[in-house]
Amino acid sequence: MERSEFEQWKGREVARLLSLVETERRYYQEMVAGLPVALAVLSSDRSVASANRAFRQLFGLTIDEVRKKAIEQILPSDVLIEKIRDLNIHGLARTPFVINAGEKHYRVGLVPIRNWSDDMEPETLLVVEDITDLQTPVEPRPQTAAPSRALAPDFENLPAIIWQANPATLAFSALGGGAEALLGYTAKHWTQTPGFFAERICPEDRETVLALYHSALEHGGEASAEFRAVAASGELVWCRETILAPDPGTGNTFSGVLTAISQRKQAEHLRIAAERHAALTHVSGRLAHDLNNPLMIVNGYTEEMQHSFEAGDPRRADMEQILTATQRISDLTNQLLQFTRHSSAAATTINVTKTLTAIDKKLATAADAPIAISGLENLTAHANAEQLEQALIALLAVNPEGRTRVKIKCDRTTITESVEGATLQPGDYARITFEDKGTQLTPARQATLFESFFSKDPQKAEGVTLAYAYSNIRNWGGDIAVESLGDGGVLFTVYLSHSRPANAKSALETHTEMIFQEPESPRPHVLVVDDEPGIRSLVAKILRREKFEVFEAGSIEEATTLLREQKRPVDLLVTDVMLGEQSGRELAEQAAQLVSGIKVLYISGFTDDESVRTGEFPPGAKFLQKPFTLGALVGRVREALES
After folding, report:
1. Any residues with CB less than 8 A from the CB of 640 and at least 6 apart, and which?
2. Which of 218, 234, 339, 417 has the most crowded Cβ, counting Cβ within 10 A?
């Protein structure tokens, strides 16, 4: 660092900046370690508590060697020791001074570090500059910084903005870091535009943020806020800013650090949406399962009663009304199950831009507005072209009111934020930004956009289509982000993974393997296992009527006992997937060990077993979804025995 550059720094400014950077340690720990200024923190006994890379390089020490030494062992000087003692007693920063150590000459600055508690031992910030090569080492004279100067040229490439401002006028006085890269404004705009301190904050967030900052300036200390900043392009950029205000009456400037956190905020929103979706999926499945059991009993016994009446008996019409009502309830549970069990089509590597360009007329018709598609020509991603088309058309149906135009851009982006539980992990993604100019979506509408799946016509319902689109893209390793545009409209961002993992196998492929199993000889004995007595009795009754020899069990323990005691092997196991706290799959595995070649028919309205949900049944196994008709039950049993 040139001498003229170093003289712009005062010891108190360095201490405050270090304290501020410590507050943002998660983001800037590496930045502090890489500062070109040699910095060290000294304990009350003058031992080195910590030192940055520049300090260690200046004196040729490793991290372990630094921590074992007192400062006089590294930089022998009676003057230095005396200055440190005086600083610890009076607590006032001293003007930088020059000390000689052999053939070396150093300019040294000492700054007391303010502790959280008065009971804590005092610490000292030591700033050292090697001035051996300077012609005439002299004490630096205080300088008045020009309004448009940068805090330090070394910070220009940082992914952050470091600033100082006047607490009375809130006018920026000095700026450093990547100001233009982050928000698009030049340093001159920051320091010379009246009112820019407030204007850079989105109007919806401005009052809250400024109230927080005024409170900090009134009392001194630190304050942090997350808000949307208005970039030079008009785009809203999520930012986090921490300010350090001086104690009242002790300074005429305060400083701050601002970073862009749009990726992190989006990752958090996607994680919340994924957690809501997962919770809704689980609740929907359990609800469908719990509804299907009594529904099955009502439906089955009503059919039985209806068959017992003569053709002209008026009670048959009453039974028909009951069956019609149960069918309506069944349709609702089926929608729940379709939502929880929807599986995506097999995905391949597609050219995203060419795929969208090929369907531009379909998109324009669906939008009823001009469509503009731009982006990389050879942008590839892992997806299914047909279902991607359906997803985009579904998104076009979300907000048609007041639509003036639609812009679709295909590009590549890199996720750099690592957020715990995030659906998108750091890496490269194909991105489709879908800018729909029109009316804004309410926050409540945004939060539940992909969760509405009930409809009298599930195949045509917007909510169902959106829910499927969301599931498809998530299953391909991507996600969908939704946000309102500042000037009206909505912005959808579709993320797609670049390539498919080599060992990945789609549910469709696995299901195909299951279908084409070699047939085995049919067997007549059937064991029915269900922890719901009404369901178990009904299934057993129907199968006995069809001349099957049927055994019943209400738990895994009862079932395994029957399997062991039967002189003639059981040919087919009919089991509910959920047996209280146990799993029908566990029973099937035990049955396979006890009876060689036993077939399995799973019946359930819902299952937490992922392999069954995705169609990955063991060889010889079948699945029948509740509620089912008695004819469907008999047909599937025969199919399982003949497979």
Report:
1. 572, 599, 600, 601, 620, 621, 622
2. 339
